[in-house]
Amino acid sequence: MKKIAALAILAVAAWEPSHQPASPQAPARSPSGESRSIWDGVYTEEQAKRGESLYSGECSSCHGDKLKGNETAPALSGSDFAMDFNGLTLADIFKKIRRTMPQNEPGRLNPQQAADVLTYILSFNKLPSGKTELPPEAEALKLIRFQLPKPEAKEKTN
Predict the structure, then answer these.
(1) 46 alpha-carbon distance from chain centroid
(2) How many angstroms separate the CA atoms of 98 and 34, rounded?
(3) What is the pTM of this model?
């Protein structure tokens, strides 16, 4: 019983906003010099459906069916979630999932499963899907910013 309580405390501490990286990783730039954001349709609906199935089996017992969290697990939706992760890259969130989840066996999810769960979280938070799956590699996810609220569109000049 003590071991379970200790694991729960460690998992909560890992998700606390005060335990975020001291300096969030700045989004890298692609060879073309561009970085993307969560508003650019960085996952597919099919991938989010796979993530929903995984979330139901691996995450919902702590984070809840509606991603609202509870006493031992933070919300993965709404304003608290947005504030906790705003300014990070998807690589930061992906690595957190890979290292610390699920609470009863941290690190059990393989990279593809972690990426799929992440896409379900994005989908649940009404972020747009696209035509390309979110890659299961941290290096590629460094190029994608978690940015809320949605940035205003830049005007194109010809």
Answers:
(1) 17
(2) 26
(3) 0.78
